[in-house]
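Internal tracking record. Fields below are filled automatically when a chain is submitted to the structure queue. Please do not edit lines marked as system-generated. If the sequence contains nonstandard residues, flag them in the REMARKS field before resubmitting.
Queue: standard
Priority: normal
Entity type: single polypeptide chain
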Amino acid sequence: MSEQEIKINVTGDEGSGQPEDSTSADAAREESQLKKLSADLADLQQTLLRRQADFENYRKRIEKERAEDSKRATARVVESLIPIADGFEHALAAHKEDEYSSYRKGFELIYKQLLDNLAKLGVERLEPLGAAFDPHMHQAMDRTETMEHPDGTILEVFQPAYVYNGRVLRPALVRVAVHPGGASNKAVN
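SYSTEM-GENERATED OUTPUT FOLLOWS
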């Protein structure tokens, strides 16, 4: 055999089936690994998105709970300040004589500051005189039979109501008008 024949045999068809089979098997193996890795990557991306959404929901829930806790704490403080405001009202109503005028001015300033600070916190003070009786906002302490006012009208306010963020901290203590012999009178008795 000459050199040319050897070269032809090397590049010829003899023995060429084996290298191609191993190459195609390697390519198929690599492609299946690539598909598996792509699927794993997609799963990990979905897991990451879910975890991020869960964390965002957790963060929002914690922020909401903190805000609610803050409102509850503020409501407790305000509830403890309401009797102090009542005390100022009683003190101002009790001493109207001229010798107490300088003390009265000081009490009025402090009382005004207290009410202003309560208002800054979001507290509303309600004086429902002349309004219709609402059992969610008012507590009837007395009834007066009269035809001069519509049935259920508030005639007198003994203590004002205080509301914080839509929640009644203290209902107003009131006197309510009732018509003599009316249905509301029978229902109450």
